Amino acid sequence: MSGKPPPRILSVAGSDSSGGAGIQADIKTITMLGGYAMTAITAVTAQNTRGVQAVEIFAPEFVIAQVESCLGDIGADAVKIGMLGSARTALTLAKRLDSFAGGIVFDPVMVASSGAELADTATIAGFATLMDIATLVTPNLPELGALTAMPLGSVDEIGEAAAALARRHDTSVLAKGGHGEDARVVDILVAPSGEAMVFDDARLPGEHTHGTGCTLSSAIATLLGHGQALPHAVRLARRFVRASIENAPGFGGGNGPLGHQAVRSLA
Ligand code: PXL
Fold first, then answer.
1. Closest CA to 52 of 92, 134, 109, 125
2. Is the CB of 143 under 6 A from ligand 1?
3. Catalytic status, residue 148
4. Rounded Cα distance, 137 and 239, in Å
């Protein structure tokens, strides 16, 4: 091998058989951004661009066994957490990662872009323990609303809700505005101190956005693994997501996948 070894990134998430979201989006993203991808699979979905047809959830012990296999040998520089499958997996994983030294990016996945539920009420309650140990939590607006029960009618209100969540769990929060209807996609990054940074871009045309949340969170984890500071990791990860949306292949009859394979360079 020449040069520096790649950052080792562990994705703890669910599998999307259609390759657009979940573990599959994570592996593509981590690889395209020069990371070494490892996985601990929490659940397997039979899924396509139109919806989720079936789900098998793995026992927490089996999820942790996968985490141990990775951390106990190769090790990891950063961890991305997505769909969890159960409250017990959330709690067990939080305990296992409590002493983890690298960055932890937690995407509090509740609902697939097709509308299918990917976390029940107990699992969402279990998110608190993972937010407590996360470096960054990346809720979209519906998730931020569910986690804070605060109004999200304006950029100011979204910033206040993100700051409340950041303070409560001593974590950074990236409130993602992609689920809004506005012509601009505004994401707000709030540090535990309440310090905020706004990322604002024109909304891209097209509805092929299946897997954007997974892609963004695993891109941030990979960039943290490369040693980027959090704000710059967020900036570059957003660029990776936007380039992937611009290169979406248009597959499937529903909300189609991104074109990770086409993003050769962030320059
Ligand atoms: O993007 C949320 C998400 C996370 N994990 C899995 C998914 C999806 C959305 O479809 O399928 C496995």
1. 109
2. no
3. no
4. 19
Helix crossing, 230-246 with 212-225: angle to 10°?
A: 140
Using DSSP bridges, classify how beta strands 36-48 and 51-57 pair: parallel, antiparallel or unpaired: antiparallel
Bridge partners for 186 per DSSP: 200
| Structural contact between residues 183 and 105, judged by C-beta atoms closer than 8 angstroms | no
33, with CB counted inside 10 A (0-12, 13-18, 19+), is buried
Q: How many CB atoms lie within 10 A of CB 128?
A: 14
Strand (E) or helix (H) holding 143: helix 141-148
* Catalytic residue selected from 102, 103, 159, 211: 211
For 114-168, the pLDDT digits (tens) are 888 889 999 999 999 999 999 999 999 999 999 999 999 999 999 999 999 999 9
Tokens of 89: 């997996």
* 65-92 burial code (b ≥16 CB/10 A, e <16): ebbeebbeeeebbbbbbbbbbbbbbbbb
pTM comes to 0.96
Structure tokens at 91: 């709690």
Amino acid letter, residue 21 = A
Task: Verify whether residue 70 is a known catalytic residue.
Answer: no
Q: Is 194 a catalytic residue?
A: no
Best residue among 17, 27, 44, 45 to mutate for probing ligand 1, ranked by most atoms within 8 Å of CB: 45
Q: What is the 3-state secondary structure (H, E, C) of 50-94?
A: CEEEEEEECCHHHHHHHHHHHHCCCCCCEEEECCCCCHHHHHHHH
Residue nearest atom 4 in ligand 1 by C-alpha distance: 22
121 among known catalytic residues = no
Q: Which helix (H) or strand (E) holds 122?
A: helix 121-133
- Banded model confidence at residue 1, pLDDT cuts 50, 70, 90: low
